[in-house]
Amino acid sequence: MSNVGLLYVGAVLLVNGLMLLGHVPARSAAVLNLFVGALQCVTPVVLIIQAGGNADAILGASGLFLFGFTYLYVGIVNLAGLEPEGIGWFSLFVAGAAVVYAGLSFGHLADPVFGVIWLAWAVLWTLFFLVLGLGRERLTRFTGWAVVLLSQPTCTVPAFLGMTGGYRSTGGLALLAALVFAALFGLAAVLGRHHQNAPAPNSIVPA
């Protein structure tokens, strides 16, 4: 995945998590979603054109569209005041695709750390499906906290490591990442329960 695009995915996930928690208005968050969504659609097109038919390069670029389409969808829905169920069901597709990309990272690409990151994203997008597609509003605050807490270690941190040549992927680091992500999901569950009586946000469009 493009490290530049991944950096801004971390930014938009943070803002959208805060939106779910009621701290950022939906229409305000929509603008950043459109910017990052457009970036995550243009970037893979350029990468695929430059790949020269290299299958692994095309595979690496293809996952960017999952994020690009999600953020464009969220931005348009929030600006237009549309129903969010379509985003929820699209998120189910993204979650399934993320599991496939995780398997490819563990096996074909020999990148176990990113395999764990893809699995974390699969969990996040599954939560989006439950909240938006199935209307499980009781999970909204847990989802918001999970997005806030996971946005930086799954996006911003590996992006900066990749751009500075510091990214490493070993089985030991993958296990450490899995433990950290599991702890953050657990913390999100605790924080979500602690604030479950707080007023609901005006919009629950998350990703």
UniProtKB/TrEMBL annotation:
Entry annotated with the keyword Transmembrane helix: yes
Any matching Pfam family: AmiS_UreI
Chief subcellular location: membrane
Membrane topology according to the record: Multi-pass membrane protein
InterPro entries xref list: AmiSUreI_transpt, AmiSUreI_transpt_sf
Keyword annotations: Cell membrane, Membrane, Transmembrane, Transmembrane helix, Transport
TM segment ranges: 6-24, 31-51, 57-80, 87-107, 113-135, 142-161, 173-192
Localization annotation: Cell membrane
Organism superkingdom: Bacteria
Similarity comment: Belongs to the AmiS/UreI family.
Protein name: AmiS/UreI family transporter
Species whose genome carries this gene: Pseudonocardia eucalypti
Higher taxonomy: Bacteria, Bacillati, Actinomycetota, Actinomycetes, Pseudonocardiales
